[in-house]
Fold this sequence. Notes:
The chain is of the alpha+beta class. 29% of the residues lie in helices and 33% in strands. The chain has a domain of 86 residues: Immunoglobulins (Immunoglobulin-like, Sandwich), CATH 2.60.40. The strands form 2 sheets. A 4-stranded antiparallel sheet has the order 4-3-6-7. The chain has a 3-stranded antiparallel sheet with strand order 1-2-5, with no helix packed on it. The longest helix has 25 residues. The relative contact order is 0.15. The mean pLDDT is 89.
Amino acid sequence: MTKNAWPIGLTIVFIVFFLYLTGFIVLSQMNRSDLVTDNYYDEEIAYQDQIERIERSRKLNQQISLNHDIQNKIVELQFPSEIDPHSISGNILFFRPSDAKQDQIHPIRLNNENIQIINVKHLTKGMWRLKIFWQLNREEYYDEKILTIE
């Protein structure tokens, strides 16, 4: 007497499919996906403020320039000449995308030629993002530069 294997095979396929689907649903429920924050409105206002800082920086006659002296291991930031070096305040954040523990903040202290020199001997090799926040005459500005330490 020969048995027909179709009912057994079909039952096994349905059981495997059901287990796969159940596993997929359970795993997807365990994965958090927070797309909206609780204080979305406040973050949107802060983001709009950042856009305005960037626009003010772009409207200046001269942009901040970055010069990396590899041999002396210093970074030279040239601020716009229209800025009075004694009336500016702010910070330069050395942001390390791959390791937040290495981030460093340096206060802005320009010399009479609107230049700030920062020693980078202690920085790890790789890419750094310089986030420059400054304030002048109660107006806030922001600029960003990329620095690669070799």
